[in-house]
Each structure stands twice: as C-alpha cells, then as structure tokens.
Amino acid sequence: MAFTGLFLILFLIVHASINACIFLNDGGKTFNEMARFMSHNWIMRFLELGLFAGLITHIIQGLMLWSQNKNARPVKYAYSQPNKNSKWYSRSMAILGTLLLLFLVMHLSHFYVDTKVALYVKGDAPHNLFEEMKEVFSVNWIVGLYVAGVIALFWHLYHGFQSAFQSLGFNHKKYTPLIKSIGFGYAIIICLLFASMPIAMFFDWIK
Amino acid sequence: MEHYHMNLTLKVWRQKNSKEQGKLETYQVKGISSEMSFLEMFDVLNEQLIVDGKEPIAFDHDCREGICGMCSMYINGQAHGPWQQNTTCQLHMRAFKDGDTITVEPWRSKAFPVLKDLVVNRSAFDRIIQAGGFISVNTGNAVDANAIAIDKKDADDAFMAAACIGCGACVATCKNGSAMLFVGAKVSQLALLPQGGPERESRVLNMVAQMDKEGFGNCTNTYACEAECPKGISVSNIARLNSEYLKAGLTTETK
To answer: CB neighbours (10 Å) of residue A39?
Structure first.
C-alpha cells in the first residue's frame, strides 16, 4: 500500500505539472506539445505501463486489506464512538479510494481513450487536447464531478502521504511532524491545481 | 470534587457462552456514588441481580489498580470508557451524570471470542508472546543490572513500550481489529535493548506470523489505538515493528 501509494504520489506531481501548462495562456501550444510527447515517446509509454501496474497493485492491496480487516471483527459494536479517537478520513480510505476509482473511469474515458488508445485504434492523428479539455469542461455538471473527485483526492492524499511513511517503518520525533506538514502542503497544492483547471476552463479564464 | 449519587440505565451485553448468540439487556441501578469505580458499580448491580435470583454479569477484573490489564469493557462506544489513559477499574462514576444511559459491550474481535457476557478470551496475545516475546540468558547467578551500558533514550523508549499491560484495548478500538500496537510494543521493548539482540530477526517474523494466524486485522494508521491505550503506548512502536519486520524479512535466510 505504502510503496504503490508513494509511487502514485510521485506520478501526480508529473501529471499536475504538465497540466499546469494550460495556464501559460498560449492557446494550449505548450500543453499540446507536452501531451504529444507523453503519448509518442516510447520511454513515457513504457513508464505508463508501470503506472498502471502500480495503480492496479494499489487497488488489489486495498481490496485485500479491506476484506482481511472486515473479517477481523465479525460481530460489530452496537454503539461505538470512533470520532473520539481518530479522524474520519483516516478511517475512510477505502471509500475515498472507491470514489477515486469511479472518478478515474470517467476521467480516463474523457482524456485517455481519445488520445492514447485512439493511437492504435484510429491511427496517429494530430490532436488538440487543449481544445478537447475546453469542450469537456464546458458542461457544468462535469466540472462539478471533477471538483468532487479532487476533494476526495485531497482527503485520500492527506492521510495517505504521512501514513505511507509510518507503514514503511519511519516515525521520528523530528521528521514525522515535517512529513505531516509536507503531506498537507502537497495535498493542498496538487488538489488546488487540479480543481482550478476545470473551473478556469468553464469560466473561460484561459485563452 | 463534590460527591453525589446517581441513578443509571445500563445496557449490558449478555451472552451465555461462546456458542450462543448474545444480546443487550437493560438494567436500572440506583444510588450509585460518584466516588465508586466503574467495576464497583457493576458489583452493586451484580449483588442486586443475585438478590433478584438472576444470573450475575460475568466480567474480567483482577488488580483493580490499573496495572494488570484484566478489565476490558467497551463503555459507551470507547474501550475502557470516556477517560484518557485509563483502565475500566480506574474509571470513576464521576465521569457520568444522574440519568445517564451507559452501553457496555465486550471487546469485539475475531481473535478474542466472547466466553461469557463481557469476558473475552485473550489467549491469542499469550500465543503471540510465546512465538517470540522472550530473550536468551545464561543460567546461574543473576548478572549485575548495570553490566551492559545502555543509552538512556533507548532505555526510556524500551520502558515506555514495556508499560503495555496487554489489555487488548488497541484491538478493541481499531476499526480493523488490528493488534499491531500490542505487537509493536512487545517487539520494541526487546529490539531497543542489547539483551533482545540474539533473537531480533526471528522474534519479529514469528510474532507477526502468529498475529496474522490469530486473525487480527491490519494497521491502516488511524492511530485510534494510541488514543485509547490506557498506558499511552505510542504508534511509533508500530513504525518500529514495521521497520524491524522489513529489515528481518529482507535479510533473513530462513523461509
């Protein structure tokens, strides 16, 4: 969980950085070039396989954890007050992860199938991913779903970042508070960046 | 603090034995002193049940000083009740008000089957200790206590981990029924000291294997165990368990 989680955390930095090129206000020129590089460079395509392997492993590990943990308490408490001893998001990683998976299905069908899968099905054709993004994010409920997905991502990352270090056996009086702060900063920055993209495109703030 | 008396409604888990299904039963207790401990309140209720010709409620208790780890009630949705770093026997009735309803359940875990009413079988913990919670020493005269120099911080951390009384509140509290705080404490108290050196690798591997075999869940770092632990055992012991396990798993040659 921790290894794959940290790997996916690294991926999100790449993903958010490339997408942030839409804010350059150059009509999506830089962004489209980056997108073309990501879909045509064979090293990137190879790394992408690793990304999917990491994601699928993360999901399988999560499902195994969930089922083992569910079996560990066959009779539930009639009355329990978990809020007295732990945060809701730390207890909700499985449900947040499921929401993220549902979000990913929509997200990949919007942007992955059209660009990277289409390469093999329809052949290579010039793509204006920037314009496609604008079109997808012109619909208000889709923008709403993306923002909701990013909110789920925030809580998932906020717990997951520091949790990964604990699981790998790293807990230190000096560094753990630092890791927790970095995790919070990371989750805030990544999620604000991602949320601002559909919103900015919806309101036509980007040219 | 002012002394007062209270009348309470108790909802207590009653279960004949490990085979039969249990259910919550409601009882009224009157004139409970705010200076009684929670277990003394149960003594009053049990005496009343005996007078009424009913079966008294079975519950675990021993020292009633907060040091033995026998008492084990899940009170109003929290292991050992509402107070922090406190056992059920040291929970005093001044934590409650007149007219309160208190729900009392046994620890809930597959590895801790209910034997009767509020009594669960915690021998899974004993078997984890048997799997590796020991050290090798030479027989003969006891060695001088200060013969081996130990760093003060390591000695303190080992002592803090050794404060675990094995009550099982961590398992009862954890949403996953995980025993990693208990095992983390028991591995840490020996891993931190030179005396724990000889069996360092086999200890963590064997204890974790036994923990999994007993049917405990996995840690997802909600840290609820630390918040409810009557001895304030830190989750840094779980991180130490994880790193000991990773290191031992990577370097050991035994299968």
So the answer is: 19
- Domain presence at residue B111: no
Kindly state the tokens that stand for B4.
């007062």
Residues B15 and B134 in one domain: no
Residues sharing a CB contact under 8 Å with residue A134, sequence separation 6 or more, in sequence order: A201, A206
The ipTM value here is: 0.90
Same domain, B100 and B135: no
Q: What is the dihedral of CA A114, A118, A123, A127, to 10 degrees?
A: 20
B106 and B169 Cβ atoms separated by less than 8 Å = no
Q: Which domain holds residue B77?
A: 5-105
Contacts of B82 in chain A (CB under 8 A): 84
Structure tokens at A84: 């007295």
Residue of B nearest to A91 (CA): B222
Q: Which two tokens stand for residue B253?
A: 């040659």
Identify the domain boundary among B105, B136, B163.
B105
Do the domain assignments include residue B118? no
Q: Is B96 on the interface with A (CB under 8 A)?
A: no
Assess B103–A contact: CB distance below 8 Å, yes or no.
yes
**Residue ranges per structural domain of chain A:** 2-202
3-state secondary structure of B221: coil
Largest CA distance in chain A: 60
Closest CA to A158 of A101, A81, A103, A96: A96
Beta-carbon contacts of residue B143 (< 8 Å; ≥ 6 apart)? B137
C-alpha to C-alpha distance for A167 and A163, rounded to whole angstroms:
6
| Best CATH choice for the domain A2-202 from the list 1.10.8, 1.20.1300, 3.90.1720, 2.10.260 | 1.20.1300
Looking at the fold, whether B77 and B33 belong to one and the same domain comes out as: yes
CA distance A56 to B114: 38
Domain membership of residue B172 (yes or no) is yes
B241 and B178 share one domain: yes
Task: Based on the fold, state whether residues B54 and B91 are members of the same structural domain.
Answer: yes
Low-confidence ranges of chain B (pLDDT < 50): none
The reported pTM is 0.93
pLDDT digits (tens, 9 = 90+) for B19-62: 999 999 999 999 999 999 999 999 999 999 999 999 999 999 99
* Residues paired with residue B162 on neighbouring β-strands, in sequence order: none
Question: Who's near A96: CB < 8 A, 6+ residues apart?
Answer: A89, A152, A155, A156
Quick check: B55 and B25 in contact, CB under 8 A? no
Residue of A69, A70, A73 to mutate, testing the B interface (most B Cβ within 10 Å of its Cβ): A73
